[in-house]
Write a structure and sequence with these properties.
It contains 18 helices and three strands. The chain is mainly alpha-helical. The protein has one domain. Helix 7 crosses helix 8. It is globular. About 1% of the residues have low confidence.
Length: 427
């Protein structure tokens, strides 16, 4: 019985994690983060309990096995070093306690949650080192397909399943935004682009492409296409081109569904202003990294100091108009006169550089970013060895070059990183 529970523990977890919200329609950003943190914590604690109930293993032998695995597997050492550094760096941040718990507004960037994700990485890496991880990967795809069907429902009816939002924000389903949802669909698509060309895999990829079309998030589409090309170009140019065609048809079908039900196709990367906004965000982030390169500003804390750190011209661009008269900017409060002469006051409650390298550097310093990039490198190695989980990791990180990580995908991403870092794909 115990073995059956362990065999299904992580597949059920990755399928349920994106949906870990109470369906009462009263969610906020803070409640979403908190509920996902709790869900991941309960799963990790339950797994530890299952390990401790193994009559053939003691805590001493478990630690000895972990030590031997660390010596054999650099990804484990790297993940643990990343988690330890996030905690240590937090104690050197301006507000150590807040860095541990995350943003005071929404718990974003919590170092304790980073440590929890590292624990999930270690648990799944050790468990699937000698086992088949296909069941976990299938569960991710099934969860993404369910999200796609729910997205179709939201677009067709104009009703939100979890959040009380304007219909123009659909589809979101259980995510905090349609862009975050698109990123998770790209992650799941990455599992399929390097898989054998079975009709079930291709049909699933088509449906997920429809879902990305519904969100009209071109970053996710581009990330999926690049992953498909990278996974198949050296093996079969025909398959690579076929996958690009299939993804394109699915995305166009998604656009058609949005227009059929009177929706508006939101502009994304086709607008130069979107790229200009990203450059502004990145400049603001680089200003912060220059001031605290070693330990960062603490998990989710940079927004509280941004007004005192960033360049004035970048702050003006961030406030959407370089011609405004910025009268006052201190920490996360900005007072300015717009071009019409009207006085405005804005207060930041959260902020992201929209780039996983810059966000990690801001939170916990450049050393943390380098350790994280090393974990990504292990997945790049797995990607070229034909590991589908590594392909999912690469697809999502391509997306994260332009977007922040979604809390609804965070734990799933770390499990994919664990499977993708394994020396050989377990298929």
């Amino acid at each position: 019985m115990r073995n059956k529970i362990m065999n299904w523990w992580w597949p059920v977890f990755v399928a349920a994690f994106p949906w870990a919200l109470w369906p009462d329609g009263t969610h906020t950003i803070a409640s979403s983060y908190f509920e996902h943190y709790i869900f991941a914590g309960v799963a990790a604690a339950g797994w530890m309990l299952l390990l401790l109930t193994d009559g053939s293993a003691t805590m001493k032998t478990s630690l000895q096995n972990l030590y031997r695995s660390l010596r054999r597997h650099p990804p484990l050492i790297t993940a643990l070093a990343f988690g330890v550094w996030a905690i240590v760096a937090s104690f050197f941040s301006p507000e150590p306690s807040l860095s541990l718990t995350g943003s005071i507004e929404d718990y974003k960037g919590s170092a304790l949650y980073v440590a929890l994700l590292v624990a999930v990485f270690v648990f799944t890496y050790l468990y699937y080192e000698s086992r088949d991880g296909t069941r976990v990967q299938t569960a991710v795809v099934l969860s993404a397909l369910a999200l796609t069907l729910a997205s179709l429902y939201e677009v067709a009816t104009g009703n939100a399943l979890f959040y009380r939002v304007n219909p123009g924000r659909h589809p979101m389903v259980s995510f905090l935004g349609y862009g975050h949802l698109a990123g998770f669909l790209a992650l799941a698509s990455g599992l399929l682009v390097g898989a054998p060309s079975r009709w079930t895999a291709m049909f699933s990829l088509f449906l997920l492409s429809v879902g990305m079309g519904l969100t009209n998030n071109r970053t996710s589409v581009l990330a999926t296409m690049l992953t498909a090309m990278g996974a198949n170009l050296n093996r079969s140019l025909g398959k690579a081109l076929g996958l690009l065609g299939l993804i394109s048809i699915g995305v166009i079908a998604g656009w058609g569904v949005v227009q059929l039900y009177g929706g508006d196709l939101r502009p994304d990367l086709t607008k130069s202003t979107t790229l200009e906004d990203r450059f502004t965000y990145w400049n603001i982030a680089i200003s912060g990294i220059r001031q605290r390169p070693l330990t960062g500003w603490g998990g989710g804390q940079y927004y509280r100091y941004m007004g005192n750190v960033a360049d004035v011209e970048d702050l003006k661009n961030f406030l959407q108009d370089p011609n405004i008269d910025l009268i006052f900017h201190n920490e996360n409060v900005f007072s300015y006169k717009d071009i019409s002469g009207k006085m405005r006051l804005e207060k930041l409650n959260s902020w992201s550089a929209h780039n996983f390298i810059l966000d990690t550097s801001l939170n916990f310093g450049i050393p943390a970013a380098l350790l994280y990039l090393l974990l990504v490198f292990f997945n790049i190695r797995g990607f070229f060895h034909g590991n589908p989980a590594a392909a999912a990791t690469i697809a999502y990180h391509a997306f994260l070059l332009m977007w922040p990580v979604a809390v609804e995908a965070s734990a799933v991403l770390w499990i994919m990183m664990a499977l993708g870092s394994l020396p050989k794909p377990r298929q």
